[in-house]
Amino acid sequence: MLPHRIHPGVAAGHPNLTPPVLAGWLAAFHDHFSAPVWSRVLVLVAGAVLAPGKRTVSQALRVMGLAANPGFSRYHEVLNRARWDGRAVARTLLVHVLGAFLPAGEVVIGVDDTIERRWGIRIKARGLYRDPVRSSRGHFVRASGLRWLSLMVMVPIPWAGRRWALPFLTVLAPSERWSSERGRRHKTVVDWARQAVLQAKRWLPDRRLIVVADAGFSGVGLIAALRRHACLVTRLRIDASLFAPAPPRRPGQMGRPRLKGKRLPALKAVLADPDTVWSRVTVAEWYGGRSRELEVASDTAVWYYSGLPPAPIRWVLVRDPSGGREPQAFLSTDFAATPERILGWFVSRWQMETTFQEVRTHLGVETQRQWSDLAILRTTPALLGLFSLVTVWADELARAPTGAVRPRTAAWYDKREPTFSDAIAAVRRVLWRPPGLSMSRPARRPSKSLPPCCKGSRIPSATQPEMRKVEPNLPQVVSPRDGAAQQQKQQLRQGIQHLGRLPGVLQSCEVRQERQCCRLNH
């Protein structure tokens, strides 16, 4: 990687601008960036975690106190110009997540796509897709945006009491119009999934991979491409063409080998057959974290489609004894897997939908406003990867003796276990709190000279000169004649230490509120 030049007059970063704990949390990614870019990456990551609302570069700079920094364009260049490898960062993120939550054993990876709703003629890779949220069986809704394919590792979170889906690799699947305009062969989302899973297997050559996907990735071609590298678990069409294995060749038999045996009854017929043997199983981690009793029937077969190689599978037919759900069929390329394990693997895929919702709610996905092709390719995967990083950091805080990750409950919401909103709140508290800052306030006595209506209220006993002493870090007014250099120096000197004025600001707010109360009552 070639070193970046630092332009004169442009500040690359400031040691007091980002908390030291953040540099320690991101130490595993330090070697992927040059020194100037790394200092700006720390600022952008801290701003993305702390910023409310939109997750734009401008919003990250505002929350970090750099709204008046004349070198703001250098932070935009981290996404649209800087030289760093996104795949290398994704590999480090995967190893980092597995080292924190799953250091050994099989790895369950979920594959799913999502639509990032974006408009504008300068966003070249966007297309028109079916909106999975607003569409139904009888109502088709189109959405304009970018289609992303995300790979997430399913890991148990001890303090959350369930598995979470943590993204580590996200790739853009451009529309067919984008490919035809550039004279390229269009790659479907299944093609991108095949490449992404094989890439993950190259990163984890010694770990067994279990790949779970929805019905959109259920195909004979994908099974043939992955069966030697990973176990694929997905849905199966209930009218799929299933065959017995091909019989062995006889000695001296002429012609090419057979690909399949005799035709087997379709799963519809198996479901309606009264002689079908059903077994009752209990799935411990069903949707919603509850256990569920189901009836299953399972066997092995060859799924064959003309023109494609045959796919030996184990199929699992599931029906609800209470009749509340329609029968469904699933498949696995692992013949030795039991129906309970196959259903448990597939149900864990639902956590991916939760992750997509959380990153939209708490990390501002779909609010970014980049137009550069390179910035578009980097921003959304970075925000999804930030979800995994915040989870790892929250796990470190939860293991501390103080137990910083606690569920935020309310009178109308009894939340037993922490969620991602609690995790990011704990991380924000660590990033906001400077060393040595105490948010507790001493007990105060009511002033005798105040009216009776205000006696007993929380009125500080400090006089106005004393109140100025607790506000030493309030930003000073800079004269326009001082120049941009003096203003920038003042902004950087304040940095993250401006939070030290928070107790004084709270006291000032209380005084103003109580004085207004006196004016209203007297």
Describe the fold and architecture.
The chain is an alpha+beta fold. Among the domains are: 215-348, no CATH class; 452-521, no CATH class. The chain contains 16 helices and 11 strands. It has helices at residues 20-25, 35-50, 57-63, 73-80, 86-101, 176-181, 189-203, 220-226, 267-272, 339-347, 350-362, 373-398, 420-432, 464-469, 483-494, 502-521; strands at residues 107-117, 127-130, 142-157, 162-172, 209-213, 231-235, 242-243, 279-283, 292-303, 311-319, 328-332. Strands 1, 2, 3, 4, 5, 6, 7, 8, 9, 10 and 11 form an 11-stranded mixed beta sheet that branches. Helix 2 (35-50) packs across helix 3 (57-63), helix 5 runs parallel beside helix 12 (373-398) and helix 12 (373-398) packs across helix 13. The longest helix is centred in the C-terminal third of the chain and has 26 residues, at 373-398. It starts with 19 loop residues before the first helix and ends with a helix. Residues 1-13, 436-442, 454-482 and 496-522 have low confidence and may be disordered.
Oligomer: single chain
Low-confidence stretches: 1-13, 436-442, 454-482, 496-522
Q: Provide the β-strand percentage band.
A: 15-25%
Q: How many E strands? A: 11
H/E element order: HHHHHEEEEHHEHEEHEEEEHHHHHHH
Helices and strands, with pairings:
Blueprint lengths: L19 H6 L9 H16 L6 H7 L9 H8 L5 H16 L5 E11 L9 E4 L11 E16 L4 E11 L3 H6 L7 H15 L5 E5 L6 H7 L4 E5 L6 E2 L23 H6 L6 E5 L8 E12 L7 E9 L8 E5 L6 H9 L2 H13 L10 H26 L21 H13 L31 H6 L13 H12 L7 H20 L1
Helix pairs in contact: 2-3, 5-12, 12-13
